[in-house]
Structure formats: structure tokens, C-alpha cells
Amino acid sequence: MRNLPVKGPLLFLIMVFVPFFLSIFYVNLLTEIFILGVFALSLNILVGQTGMVSLGHAAFFGAGAYAAGLAAIHVSTNTFLSIAAGLLAAFLLAVIIGLFSTKANGFYFLMLTLACSQIVYSIIYQWRTVTGGSNGLTGIAPIDLGANIVLSNQVWVYYFILVVFTIVLFLINRFLHSPLGSVLIGIRENEERMKSIGYNTALYKNISFIIAGTLGGLSGSLYVIFNGFISPAEVYWTASGSVLIMVLIGGAGTLWGPVIGAAFIVILETLISSYMENWMMIIGAVFIIFVIFAPDGMVGIFNALKKFFVQPKKLEVDADEPIIKPIKQETKMDG
Amino acid sequence: MEKDKILSLKGLSKHFGGIKVIEHVSLDVTAGERVGLIGPNGAGKSTLFNMIAGDLEPSGGTIHYYGDRINSMPNYKRTQKGIVRTFQKNNLMMGLTVRENILLVLQRINQKHTQWWKQATPGNYQLLFEHAGSLLHEWGLEEYSQTKVKDLSYGVQRQIEMIMAIAGNPKLLLLDEPTAGMSQVETDQIISLINKLPVEVTIMMIEHDVDVLFGNTDRVIVLHAGTLIADGSPEQVRENPEVKEIYMGKEVIANA
């Protein structure tokens, strides 16, 4: 993103060399960050870009994870087949849930997505013969990339997920600022006005919901490839709340915000959970602090700091623009 | 013959509960006409616009656009077909820049709005950005191109409303008090730019500034308490006794 001092290709290179320097514990931590990063990026399309706050995004993560896992168990351990199954399941679920939940706005949209995701949760929880119920889906064999390249080594899983994450980030970077992306931003800003300049906003909200849901399914299937296991806990509404917190703490509507948020929560969780059990309490407190003092998230803080430090330089750049702007402000008071 | 009429209202009514805001309004508008709409506050002018633009569904009567009945056509479809409106109160994407607001209109007109694989940069969408630039240049607002709309004065926002309406390739342009809250200079600028619009663009304009309205339209319609009481050239309407009574009466009360 232009506003952030992050250079994409450089960061990618650093990430490529990370496994040579860090222990497998940290490599796994990074893998988890990338997976949840994709998850948060997908929710950001809905929450940050289109302005539709969903509390049911875990349903798509779950649909993708279970579909990918089931495909690996019952059909083939090919990675691409698993991912395709995950994408398809999440896509279909997003079409169905989007069809009626996008008709509602604001609070009602949030409640509808929450209700729908809890339905998905209870189906997964109770359909024991297929999903394994509360035991979760076990016995998923290591995934292979075809041609007998088995992703059994966690470092290879790391590289595979890094590549997928990078592709997703690259595409979302384009999408976020594309004409279609700007339609979604327009809806966030003023949906009624978007209708009156000729946009069928219901359609675009559905498109946003489907893209977000399908990408959520992608992160779910990556999770299964990484973890070899999925349980209903990842589909419960607290998982939806957790990813929403990632987006909001990182910075909704920005490219890097959701990724930074995901990294922050994953690291915080790992650090705190080794000292105390109630790590959710700390994350809750952190979230409250962010909502009150930094509503634009961490990216908002970065931008404010950057503005603060870069200001003197900026004045030089603007020097050749006219300092006194023509006054266009004299409005008359009578209607 | 139906096709000459760009807009045809027959017995159009709008009731909110028991309140009849618009009652049996019938009128035809020919393509290229410049129609002014006046009436005291609460006469139903904006409600009439809302029904024509599709923001409100009529309680009775019909709306025909180029001979097609459009009573239940959603507002975005009417906009796509050329019925473009501005709002009495500024209604823009406040958190976006002026240029982004205008581009949202231009990208739809140019069928680029479903592209998701390229960033909307001047390099990728040269024609759109040039068009937006030339519109801003024409209105003398280039300096605000990258400014967020919410940081601009009411008058400038009002002008952006106009630019967005004009950028939308209107066939029937509905202007709801385009000069409300603007300085004399800005009012003159807006009126001269409205007059520069292509002759084939049909314009209906609600305006409280009667001098502006009578000087720049070739037909004036007067609404009073939801009914149409006068329809004719500015001169005819000015001499209409009923219209005089309404406006004189208002003045007497105002002075009392």
C-alpha cells in the first residue's frame, strides 16, 4: 500500500529466508499468521471495503476447511483438489447466505450472519458421520502437490502457504483500488447515493459477500493443509469475533491492516497463553483500547506517526503549490 | 407521438398515510424542454422528483418515460436509462475525494465498473481520468481534485453534485434546487453551465430563486398543496392570477 512504509517484494524475500534463521516453532507461527491473514483479508473486503460488519465469517472458514479435509480423506490428497473443494463449498455457502443476509443493513446484517454461521456450526457439530462431530475431522493425510511432492515437511507447507498468501495479497491490492473495488467503497460511503448514480447496490453487496466468503474458504482449506485437523471450535461464533477483531485492530479498509491485525493477535495469543489461560481477556482489553484510542487500527497509528515525522519534508514538496487558495466559501444563508 | 414525450405523468399521486402530498398531477415533457418547477414549501416538488427518479413509488397514476411505463422500475435502472437527479441536500460519498466521486459516475458510463484486476490509476484508465480532469477544469475546481468531499465548503459540494449529474450522461436531468445555499457568483456560474448543456438534454429544475428560474426556463409548472395549478411559459405563469394569489398571500402573511 502506498501509505505504508512496507515494500512488498522485499518483505517477500525476507520471508523466503526466514526458515533458515528461525526455529520451526516460529516458522509455524508465521504460517498461522499467513493463514489467518488471508482470513482477515477476506473479511476486510466485507467489513472494511463495503462497510458490512459480519459476525459470521467463520462459517466460510469452516466450510472451506471441512470440504478440503473431506476431499483429502475421501477423494485424493492432492492439494489443489482440496483447495478447489474448499473454495467451491465456501462459494456455494456464500451465495446462499448472501442471498438473504445482504438484504439487511447494519445491525440486522450482523445478526443474520451470526445466525447463519451458528446454523453452519450446529450442522458441523451434529453431523457426526461426516464431520466427526465434536471430535473434529481427523485422519487427514499429508497433502501433496501432485507428482509425488508431499507437503509433509512443515517448512514446505510454510513455503506453499507463503506463495498462496502472496498471490492473494497481490490480487487484493489490485482489487481494493480497482473500479469494482471503488464501487464497494462507494457503497460503504453512501449506499443510497450509489443507487442514484446507477449502481445496483444489492448486486454489488452480494458480489462482495461472495468474494469475501470464497476467500474465507481458501483460508480454511489452507488451515487444514497446515494443521491436518479441523474441529467445530474454529467454526464457532467466537472465531468470527476473533477475525473481526483482527480486521479492526489492524485497520479496516486498508491492505495491510488485516494482516498486521492477524499477526498481532496470533503473536499475542501465543505469548499470553503460555503464561495464563484467560488470554481472551487480554485481547478483549486490547480491543477496547484500540476502539477508544485508535479507531483506525494499527495502520491508522502508522499513518499518524508517518505524518508526524514526514511533515517537514512534505512542506518542501508542496512549496510550488499556491499557499493561498481561492476562496469559494461565501455561501448565502437564504435558501 | 408517445415517443416525442420524454416524460409523461398521468394522474400521479403520493399519499403518506392520510396525507396527500401529490394529488393527480398530469403533465407531459417534450425532449429538450427546460422546465422549471415552483411552489411554496410543502407543495410536493421534491416528492414529485422522487417519484420520477424512482426514489419513491407512486400511490396512484402512471409515469411513462419514452413511452415505457416505469412506475416500479428501481432508481438505479432509471439512472442507467438517463434519468439523472441531484439532491436538495448534498448527498455525496463524503469520505472519498472529489475525483473519486466523479470517477464512480464515469466508470459506469464507460462500462469499466466491473473491472477488478487493475488499480484505478491515471495510467490504467487514462480516458476516465482525463474526462474527470476536464470536467473539473470546466467548473474551475481542479485544485480540489484530490480533496475529500467532506473537507469542502457546502457551495463546492453543491457544484460537485452538478458535475456528477452531468457526467452521468443525462437525457432527463432533475435538478433539485441546484443553487440553494450558494453565493451569487456560484449561482451565476451554475446557471451558465446549465445553459451550456446540450440542447437535447431535457431539464426539470426546482428553484426557489424565481428570477433565476423564470430567466432560464421555457416553461414553468406551479405546484400548490400537491396539485398542479399552472403550467405555461414564464410570462403566462407570472400573470396567472392563482399563482399571484399564492405568492402574494404568502407575502402578506410574511409581512404581518
From TrEMBL, chain A:
Coiled coil: none annotated. GO terms for molecular function: branched-chain amino acid transmembrane transporter activity. The chain crosses the membrane at residues 12-41, 53-73, 79-100, 107-127, 156-176, 203-230, 242-267, 279-305. Its main location: membrane. GO terms for cellular component: plasma membrane. InterPro entries: ABC_transp_permease (IPR001851), LivM-like (IPR043428). It is a multi-pass membrane protein. It is found in: Cell membrane. Keywords: Cell membrane, Membrane, Transmembrane, Transmembrane helix. PANTHER family: ABC TRANSPORTER ATP-BINDING PROTEIN, HIGH-AFFINITY BRANCHED-CHAIN AMINO ACID TRANSPORT SYSTEM PERMEASE. This is Branched-chain amino acid ABC transporter permease.
Automatic annotation (TrEMBL), chain B:
It comes from the Bacteria. SUPFAM superfamilies: P-loop containing nucleoside triphosphate hydrolases. GO terms for molecular function: ATP binding; ATP hydrolysis activity; L-isoleucine transmembrane transporter activity; L-phenylalanine transmembrane transporter activity; L-valine transmembrane transporter activity. InterPro entries: AAA+_ATPase (IPR003593), ABC_AA/LPS_Transport (IPR051120), ABC_transporter-like_ATP-bd (IPR003439), BCA_ABC_TP_C (IPR032823), P-loop_NTPase (IPR027417). GO terms for cellular component: plasma membrane. Signal peptide: none annotated. CDD domains: ABC_Mj1267_LivG_branched. Keywords: ATP-binding, Nucleotide-binding, Transport. This is ABC transporter ATP-binding protein. It comes from Neobacillus rhizophilus. The lineage of its organism: Bacteria, Bacillati, Bacillota, Bacilli, Bacillales.
